Amino acid sequence: MEFRIIFSLLCLVLMTDISTADPTVTVAQGILVGKTVNFTEEDYIGVDKSFDVYLGVPFADPPRRFKPPVAKQPWDGPLTVKEFKDACSQTSPPPSYAGPLSEDCLYLNVYSPSPKDAEAPGNLGMLDQVAALQWIYDNVEAFGGDKDRITISGESAGAASVHYLTLSKRSRHLFNQAIIQSGTTSFDSRPAEIEVQDARNLGEALDCSTSPSSALVACLETKTPDEILNASLPAYSSCPISVDGNFLEDKPINLYEQNDFKRCPVLTGVSKDDGTLFLRFLFASSLHLPRPTLNSTGLEELIRGLMAPYGVTDDILIAAILQQYTDWSIVENPSADLMPSFIEFAGDHRFACPSDQFVRYHAGVGDTVFKYFLTHEPSRSRLGLPDWFGAGHAEEITFVFGLPFIEHLPLRGLDQMTDEEKKLSVKMMKLWTNFAKFGDPTSGADPSEGLGTWPSFTVPELSYKEISLDLGVGRALKANQCNFWNDYFPKLQDDIASMDQGLLDWRSEFTRWQGEMSDWQREYDQYKKTPRCN
Asked: What are phi and psi of 386, to 5 degrees?
């Protein structure tokens, strides 16, 4: 009999009806004692299955702050693993998680079918994931799994992690397939001096000496997790993975240009309204109100703010983005709302077009790639967001993990979603699990299941699956927008970087003069409207 295994790193699934029998398994470090649980759903999925679960399995020793993970040493006697351990310390845990947070979080939750008979090196979070994957690779067969058929999956930051794992030589051999949902690497990396300055900013915020680095690390080790997390928000504009010569040997774009990445089947895609992610932070205090409106001035301000962390501040570059995303059919209307333009810009720049670049590299070397585009707007948001967030960021998780069928989770009443949405969830679970099992989302599917076709992404066909109630097929997703971001915009950046200083100074002065002329024009127009004596 063939057994398959699910390892849960990022998601929390609760099950009930604990069996009195205690399953055991022998792994490299010793004996684990878990528990058996049962999951039943009769109306839509039609399942009644038992699982052996091992919760809080240590894959590394408790971490030492600012140090790489150390493989878990063998233990004496059976180790009982029946309860969830704390999640890792973080500022915004998922809304479905209400448990404690801790630095001591290097644990796995393992679910398997019940058998019938430097001073402060970077990228430590990624090295933790490599250690987890290594443990899975070494021990999966003890649970009835196959180490040559491991699929890793992630969404948003988790998707970016999966993407980086396809690039690192430390992890490529530890898995065979990848699922990447609304998240990719940054195809360029920040200069090392910026990362050093970020570390110094963090130290200064916590009243630590920032030189030498050993003194900074020693001081940070005395701080609580909450102190570090709270200070990191203003100190770090973003937290990308760095080129350290250990986890990541070169910039992602260079690795792709050299075909130096994991060759494997990939299922990946984005959501129509991924760009609304940024509205959750920009308008956090007014999410209960109707969607904010945006005029042309506001659109430019938000675009400048979102591009600044990437070093994009040049007026010519900002003008090019505005040219691409301004809705010129309505902009002359004083009451025009350009918020949809901002949502599309943010979604394209951060999600859709990096994803398009990624799939083209994999398809270009012959990898099997399945691309999707979520357009269904859920009737209930798992994040508790208003309807105007549409098919927003991370909403596909509701359907992929069957959350409408987990009644006892406090998830915004997702069990009350429509019958059509519950059927969509069943279909998405089948598509995703078919890919994990067979490398093809529709492999062996019966026509009665309603999965339809899902052609692989190839050039020039550019096919993708539309995730909607009808599960259609489309082509050339965001082709024009992604040509702008992945071809035209980098070339424009290179052209500007090659300008000599004299031309740059002249352009800056000319821009200043244009601003003064605009101010003068406004004042003159106002003057003409002022009543005058005859």
From this structure: -70, 165
Radius of gyration from C-alpha coordinates of the chain: 26
Alpha-carbon span 417 to 378, nearest angstrom: 8
What token pair was written down for 442?
């529709």
Residue 228, helix vs strand vs coil = helix
What are the Cα distances from residue 431, in Å, to 145, 233, 243, 372, 396?
A: 20, 38, 35, 11, 13
The number of residues making up the chain comes to 534
| Count of alpha carbons within 13 angstroms of residue 3, beta-carbon side | 19
pLDDT tens column, 105-132: 999 998 887 754 466 777 888 999 999 9
Q: How confident is the model at residue 492 (pLDDT cuts 50, 70, 90)?
A: very high
Amino acid at the residue 427: K
Rounded CA-CA distance 60/175 in Å is 19
Residues whose CB is less than 8 angstroms from the CB of residue 369 and which lie 6 or more positions away in sequence, other chains included: 265, 266, 267, 268, 359, 362, 363, 456, 457, 458
Residue 35 β-bridge partners:
53
Q: Which residues pair with 266 in a beta bridge?
A: 178, 369
Q: How far apart, in whole angstroms, are the C-alpha atoms of residue 315 and residue 291?
A: 28
Q: How confident is the model at residue 164 (pLDDT cuts 50, 70, 90)?
A: very high
| Residue-level pLDDT at 21 | 56
The span from the CA of 338 to the CA of 292, in Å, is: 10
**pTM of the full predicted structure?**
0.81
In this structure, what are the phi and psi dihedrals at residue 134, rounded to the nearest 5 degrees? Answer: -60, -40
Q: What is the largest CA-CA distance in the chain?
A: 106
State the DSSP string of 167-224.
Answer: H-TTTGGG-SEEEEES----SS---HHHHHHHHHHHHHHTT---SSHHHHHHHHTTS-
- Identify the burial level of 152 via C-beta atoms within 10 angstroms of its C-beta, where 0-12 means exposed, 13-18 middle and 19 or more buried: buried
